[in-house]
């Protein structure tokens, strides 16, 4: 029994390191972003996944109406937000 535990220890250690280094940090970052996106309201600045910066005009359940700087107003999905740049929902 002790031999089995001794031989399984390296595999378990690799799994634990993999969990803490590879799996958990992106999950935590995604959870923080999701929390900030849910707190978005008019006037907050966001960066979209396609690289556009914009200001949130209105927020619906699934979409955001965003005014792109010196450009048009867009209606985008909430999932298109890459980063909250400024506003109540950000830490910046």
Main structural class: alpha+beta
The tally of helices reads 1
Order of helices and strands: HEEEEE
Instruction: Give the C-alpha Rg.
Output: 20 Å
Number of strand elements: 5
**Span of the ends, CA to CA:** 53 Å
Name the average pLDDT.
88
Helix content: 40-55%
Share in β-strands: 25-35%
Indicate how many domains the architecture comprises: 1
Give, in spatial order, the strands making up the sheet with the most strands: 4-3-2-1-5
Major sheet attributes: 5 strands, antiparallel
pLDDT under 50 segments (min length 5)?
A: none
CA-based shape: rod-shaped
Please write out the topology:
Blueprint: H1 2-38, E1 45-48, E2 53-59, E3 63-68, E4 73-77, E5 81-86
Descriptive notes:
The protein has 92 residues and is of the alpha+beta class. It has one domain (1-80). 40% of the residues lie in helices and 30% in strands. It is built from one helix and five strands. The chain has a five-stranded antiparallel sheet. A hairpin with a 4-residue loop joins strand 1 and strand 2 (53-59). The relative contact order is 0.17. The chain crosses the membrane at residues 6-26.
Task: Give a brief rundown of this model.
With 92 residues, this protein is α+β, with helices and mostly antiparallel strands. The protein has one helix at residues 2-38, and strands at 45-48, 53-59, 63-68, 73-77, 81-86. The N and C termini lie far apart (53 Å).
